From TrEMBL, chain A:
NCBIfam families: xseA. Keywords: Cytoplasm, Exonuclease, Hydrolase, Nuclease. Its main location: cytoplasm. The keyword Transmembrane helix does not apply. Residues 13-106 form the OB-fold nucleic acid binding domain. It is an enzyme of class 3 (hydrolase). One of its GO terms (molecular function) is exodeoxyribonuclease VII activity. Residues 129-349 form the Exonuclease VII large subunit C-terminal domain. It catalyses: Exonucleolytic cleavage in either 5'- to 3'- or 3'- to 5'-direction to yield nucleoside 5'-phosphates. This is Exodeoxyribonuclease 7 large subunit.
UniProtKB/TrEMBL annotation, chain B:
It is found in: Cytoplasm. Keywords: Cytoplasm, Exonuclease, Hydrolase, Nuclease. Heterooligomer composed of large and small subunits. Belongs to the XseB family. This is Exodeoxyribonuclease 7 small subunit. Its EC number is 3.1.11.6. NCBIfam families: PRK00977.1-3 (NF002139), xseB (TIGR01280). The keyword Metal-binding does not apply. GO terms for molecular function: exodeoxyribonuclease VII activity. The lineage of its organism: Bacteria, Bacillati, Actinomycetota, Actinomycetes, Propionibacteriales. Its main location: cytoplasm. Pfam families: Exonuc_VII_S.
């Protein structure tokens, strides 16, 4: 039902006010979450006025509720408390203001708070913001460490001191932000964004000391979690003590239990590193020295083997062999000679026995012509023939003067 | 037993492992015997050459190692 108005036919204020009231009513009753920043409850007034502020944005709205409702709350509403209100927005034409008429107020008690946190965690987890695969490794040695913390806080001191003790050359880029209260979430997000843009910063630490669940609530805020998920630089969450687990811990690339622990995670310990390098060098040398020693021992063993160390042993064996052979050769030769000598002696004896020498020695002589033939008959021997006579000890050369034939014998006898 | 006579490649070209292996073989054959006198002498001479080559390899390695160690001593002083 758009309202036709024109400069000529303007609508009266009351008509506009009623129209606005009508539109506002169309929103109907809603559940609203916010943080109570101001409560005005005056005795004698039937309604209590509150200012409810958005958890993140700097937007607030006034909430009115009946005093009876306000008093019926189990825990008194205190400034800073988070509440969930079931209210119907309404427009008051007389003053032209809008306020939420609260019908039901629920304290965001600790249990409920945690319950809501859990639901938010599941929601974000379902979106995959906490996936392990998204976790980026921290640089081993960062060029510059970004630090989001409260100015002059214990957390800041812990991170700076511990990091510098481990790696004196570490450089920091500190972005201060409120780590408590309504402003903290927005400031932290803004600080993170600034560090993320900083070219040299290659790791961002968000550090805060311990606190109650409410204190740490900003670090479970959905907007902050989404912002951290979107950063390019790895983020280390160091919020509260060991048991505290704001959602920031889940979305950060690395969760440090405390600010001091965060310092240990972002910079290596120079003394450890130096010791590591020295140890590696020593092991390197020991390995090579060990290898050379083993090879040397092997070689020495080979060289000490008789075959190499004492070549004479080779020749010596041969010399002995030869000597042995020689001795055997001599012995066998000796035997053979002896036998030969016996044989010769034997042969000689037999030759002697058969030889005419003995006969000659008994006075006989053998007559031979010039050709050496033995003359056994006078026939054919003429006077003046040269002959030689073999006697025992030599030979006589003579020439015949004459020959006498013996009377012929009948049996032709002969002698050898 | 027509075993080849002692290796002929020049000892200098052999790698340390090759020289060492041949040296072990020479010693084995000498100790096994059955080689002619001529061969044993040739084997023995070859053995000496191989042993010297191996020793030179090891001395070289040790020198390089000691050099690295001295390099440190100077730095540490």
């Amino acid at each position: 039902m758009a309202l036709e108005t024109s400069p000529a036919a303007p609508a009266p204020v009351r008509q506009i006010a009623n129209a606005i009231a009508g539109w506002v009513d169309r929103l109907g009753a809603v559940w609203v979450e916010g943080q109570v920043t101001q409560v005005t409850r005056r005795t004698g007034m039937a309604t209590v006025f509150m200012t409810l502020r958005d958890a993140v944005a700097d937007i607030s709205v006034t909430v009115t509720c009946a005093r009876s409702l306000y008093d019926s709350l189990d825990a008194p509403l205190v400034e800073g408390a988070s509440i969930v209100v079931h209210a119907k927005p309404s427009y008051y034409p007389t003053r032209g203001t809008i306020s939420l008429q609260a019908r039901e107020i629920r304290m965001v008690g600790l249990g409920e708070l945690l319950a809501r946190l859990e639901r938010r965690r599941q929601l974000l987890a379902a979106e995959g913001l906490f996936e392990r695969s998204l976790k980026r490794p921290l640089p081993f040695l960062p060029t510059r460490v970004g630090l989001v913390t409260a100015p002059g806080s214990a957390a800041e001191r812990d991170v700076l001191e511990n990091a510098r003790r481990r790696w004196p050359a570490v450089r920091f880029e500190v972005a201060y932000a409120a780590m408590q209260g309504t402003r903290s979430c927005a400031e932290v997000m803004e600080a993170i964004a600034r560090l993320d843009r900083h070219p040299e910063v290659d790791v961002i630490v968000v550090a805060r000391g311990g606190g109650s669940v409410e204190d740490l609530l900003p670090f479970s805020d959905e907007a902050l979690v989404r912002a951290v998920a979107a950063t390019r630089t790895p983020v280390v969450s160091a919020i509260g003590h060991e048991p505290d687990q704001p959602l920031l811990d889940l979305v950060a690339d690395v969760r440090a239990s405390t600010p001091t622990d965060a310092a240990k995670l972002v910079v290596p310990d120079v003394t450890d590193e130096l010791r590591g390098v020295a140890a590696a060098r020593d092991r390197l040398r020991a390995a090579v020295a060990g290898r050379v020693d083993r090879e040397q021992a092997g070689l020495d063993a080979l060289r000490s083997r008789p075959a190499l160390a004492d070549p004479r042993s080779l020749v010596h064996a041969r010399v002995e062999e030869v000597a042995g052979l020689r001795a055997r050769a001599r012995r066998s030769l000796g035997h053979r000679l002896d036998r030969a000598a016996d044989d010769i002696g034997h042969q000689r004896a037999r030759a002697r026995a058969l030889s005419p020498l003995a006969t000659l020695q008994r006075g006989y002589a053998v007559l031979q012509d010039t050709d050496g033939h033995v003359l056994t008959s006078v026939a054919g021997v003429a006077a003046g023939a040269t002959v030689s006579v073999r006697v025992a000890d030599g030979r006589v050369h003579a020439t015949t003067t004459g020959v006498d034939a013996d009377p012929l014998e009948t049996d032709g006898g002969h002698d050898g | 037993m027509a075993e080849p006579t002692a290796g002929t490649t020049d000892v200098q070209e052999l790698s340390y492992e090759a020289a060492r292996e041949e040296l072990v073989e020479v010693v084995r054959r000498l100790e096994a015997g059955g080689t002619t006198l001529e061969e044993s002498l040739a084997l023995w001479e070859r053995g000496e050459l191989l042993a010297t080559a191996c020793q030179r390899w090891l001395d070289g390695a040790r020198e390089r190692l000691d050099a690295a160690l001295e390099g440190d001593q100077e730095q540490d002083d």
